[in-house]
């Protein structure tokens, strides 16, 4: 009986070893690379079109949404971070090709599968290239093109708003953009917004030349712009005086010092450092308030133009992003960094390309209700700006335009 028990134990042990061996044994790949991907250097989109595009500046811009010299400068900044080591088994994909795959993803909003066939790469390769390059773009470009402003930089922004948009003591225009995304799993209605689609929100402060100064991404689509602002790091730093804002300064041709302000639409609260339009009912009965709304709306248009430029250049914003929210946030950050990079590296002579395109006949829309909790000091600040725009800061055309706006 002892012998039978021993034989049974040996048999069970042998079976366990055999099962363990089968688990550890890896199935060898029948092929290292699929045949269709082996022709990447011959038929891949990058290798068939890049050299031709270099000789046609217009077509290059249409394909990359940037000029050739801008592409080279961007590649040089990222090269050390995205270049891989060539081995005896295969040639590495160059930094230029990696950046091209990523830019085409952002510019067209194509799926990974479509890019895989276009560039003759495996889907997993395309996936890893795009995610890695987008992360590198954020890490490398953000300290260069979107560093946290200091007092000197705020002063420059204020001068630009006055020189270009005739709005003194202005540090930026603030607004939010809903980015269309696929409903995340188990998220309920958190991302469902008032426009009846699922979204994550980009809250941005933009300077007078359409560059993003501060961005806050990842807020739930169901929240309002004002609610998102009050839960943002920007708002907390603004209220704790950690933004290094310039000291109060008199408006031109005046003596009383007023705070520097950010300008927004009716969705944002009126505060010591944020100006919003007067309610529509008040503006209808008082020309000076209508003029104030016109001047504020004219300057605030820069943030809407920046969102428009972002959407026009990167068509991924025109489609539903079928990506997890955390990756959507990286895409948004990367595109805002690329936007700033291209703004800062424009061809000389393009600086005023968009300034003349803002229509003076801006519709002055606003909520009829004013927040009754606004302090007298805050209301006084807005009234001082209103009085300035109707006196020493008046423009020749403003009264005529304001009377034509309903």
TrEMBL record:
Protein keywords: Hydrolase, Metal-binding, Nuclease, Nucleus
Cofactor: a divalent metal cation
GO cellular component: nucleus
Subcellular localization, as worded in the UniProt entry: Nucleus
Gene Ontology MF annotations: hydrolase activity; metal ion binding; nuclease activity
Residues annotated as domain DDE Tnp4: 174-340
One of the Pfam families matching this protein, by short name: DDE_Tnp_4
The organism's place on the tree of life at top rank: Eukaryota
Main location: nucleus
Record family assignment: Belongs to the HARBI1 family.
PANTHER family: NUCLEASE HARBI1-LIKE PROTEIN (PTHR22930:SF269), PTHR22930
Protein's name in the database: DDE Tnp4 domain-containing protein
């Amino acid at each position: 009986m002892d012998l039978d028990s021993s034989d049974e134990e040996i048999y069970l042990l042998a079976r366990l070893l055999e099962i363990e061996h089968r688990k550890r044994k890896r199935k060898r790949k029948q092929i290292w690379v699929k045949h269709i991907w082996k022709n990447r250097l011959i038929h891949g989109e990058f290798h068939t079109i890049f050299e031709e595009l270099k000789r046609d500046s217009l077509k290059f811009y249409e394909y990359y949404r940037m000029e050739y010299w801008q592409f080279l400068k961007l590649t040089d900044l990222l090269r050390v971070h995205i270049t891989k080591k060539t081995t005896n088994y295969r040639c590495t994909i160059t930094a230029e090709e990696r950046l091209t795959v990523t830019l085409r993803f952002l510019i067209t909003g194509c799926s990974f599968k479509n890019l895989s066939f276009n560039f003759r790469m495996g889907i997993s390769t395309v996936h890893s290239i795009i995610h890695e390059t987008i992360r590198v773009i954020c890490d490398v470009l953000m300290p260069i093109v979107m560093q946290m402003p200091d007092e000197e930089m705020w002063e420059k922004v204020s001068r630009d708003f006055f020189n270009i948009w005739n709005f003194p003591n202005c540090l930026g225009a603030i607004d939010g953009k809903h980015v269309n995304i696929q409903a995340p799993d188990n998220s309920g209605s958190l991302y469902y917004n008032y426009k009846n689609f699922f979204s994550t929100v980009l809250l941005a402060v933009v300077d007078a030349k359409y560059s993003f100064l501060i961005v806050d991404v990842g807020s739930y689509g169901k929240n309002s712009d004002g609610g998102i602002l009050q839960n943002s790091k920007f708002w907390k730093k603004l209220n704790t005086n950690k933004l290094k804002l310039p000291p109060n300064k008199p408006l031109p041709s005046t003596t009383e010092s007023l705070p520097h302000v950010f300008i927004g639409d009716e969705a944002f609260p009126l505060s010591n450092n944020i100006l919003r339009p007067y309610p529509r009912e008040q503006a209808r009965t008082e020309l000076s308030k209508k003029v104030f709304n016109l001047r504020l709306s004219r300057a605030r248009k820069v943030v809407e133009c920046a969102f428009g430029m972002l959407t026009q250049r990167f068509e991924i914003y025109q489609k539903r992003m079928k990506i997890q929210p955390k990756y959507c946030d990286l895409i948004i950050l990367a595109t805002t960094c690329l936007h700033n990079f291209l703004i800062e590296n424009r061809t000389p002579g393009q600086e005023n390309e968009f300034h003349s395109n803002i229509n003076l006949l801006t519709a002055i829309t606003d909520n009829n209700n004013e927040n009754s909790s606004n302090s007298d000091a805050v209301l006084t600040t807005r009234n001082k700006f209103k009085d300035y725009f109707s006196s020493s800061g008046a423009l020749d055309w403003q009264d005529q335009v304001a009377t034509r706006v309903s």
